[in-house]
Amino acid sequence: MYSPAASLNMDKPVWVGECGHANADTNWNDSLQSNCELEALNTGYSGGYAGVSIWSYALPDWQTTDFIQYGMLNTNGSWRAVCYTLQNWTPASVPPASSNLVIYDDALENGFQDNESWATINDLNTSPVHAGNDSISVTAAQWTALWLYQDSFSTAPYASLDFWINGGAAGASGVQVLGVTNSEYSAIYNLPSLPANTWVHFNIPLAALGVSNIANCQGFWFRASLTGTGTFYVDSVQLDAAAKPSVAVVSANPQSGSFVLQLSGLSGQSYWIETSTNLVNWTTVSTNVLTYASANVTNPASAGTSRQFWRAYWP
């Protein structure tokens, strides 16, 4: 629904000033209204926004039913069902940015589905299993896939896709993992040949799947390539949380008139570096984005001052 707050490169908290349902929907009802407003809150929260403003209004008695159905309040001033939904909303219903997001662990979790898949899928397969009681079996011909689907979620809080995969009785080759947006893949990650009857662990950076720090990821394909494959198994699938950005000093003393900071975060993360001689007045000396997960940034030391300070911060 919204781009991640961090992508706006603001130096202050960002608030979504107005959001609501689409008035073009002619089949509006309490359930749809509640789901729409919950999506606004959940997307704002998971995207790092400081707050979301939801429309709240009543309509006079002379308005037609077509208009009344969109109101947050009944014409007598009493609450519509959506108001109770909003009152009971809690951020705990959304996985925190610092937590891993489980996709499959004996069952599909956190809104993920596999009914968009076009390979033959069984997500209650009992053998082989890596952990728990079940795994997902995938019987795939050329270019068919398991699609672990969710509708347009933000990947900003996450760094990588983590899973276990088994090549089955015959082993499997030509298996690909792909990040998906707009019902199309964004990038392809080719897995090596999978040995028979063996669970293998993979942790693939979202950048390698083309879905790092985006607002509209639609999940992941596990696809058989042109070489084809038979049946393989997938288990214990999750998105691993991105590490919080940090800064460290590479050298405790200026070297040849410079001071080096090491920035660690997420590929595509914006940063600013400022310097001061009195800890009151600060001057920006560089701003950029990380090309990789970490980088060393060399900052020139000012001549003619007995002390100099540096700081780095993130949006």
The backbone outline, from C-alpha atoms, is flat
End-to-end distance: 20 Å
Quaternary arrangement of the chains shown? single chain
Number of helices: 3
How much strand content do the residues show? 35-45%
Mean pLDDT: 80
Structural class: mainly beta
CATH superfamily of the largest domain: Galactose-binding lectin
Order of helices and strands: EHEHHEEEEEEEEEEEEEEEE
The number of distinct structural domains comes to: 3
Give the radius of gyration: 25 Å
Largest sheet: number of strands, sense, barrel closure: 6 strands, antiparallel
Q: Which architecture of the largest domain per CATH?
A: Sandwich
Helix content: under 10%
Low-confidence stretches: none
CATH top level of the largest domain is Mainly Beta
- The CATH topology name of the largest domain reads Jelly Rolls
Query: How many distinct beta strands?
Result: 18
Please, could you describe this protein's structure?
The protein has 315 residues and is mainly beta. The protein has three domains: 5-93, no CATH class; 101-241, Jelly Rolls, CATH 2.60.120; 246-313, Sandwich (Immunoglobulin-like). The chain has three helices and 18 strands. Helix 1 (30-46) links the parallel strand 1 (15-19) and strand 2 (51-54). The longest helix has 17 residues, at 30-46.
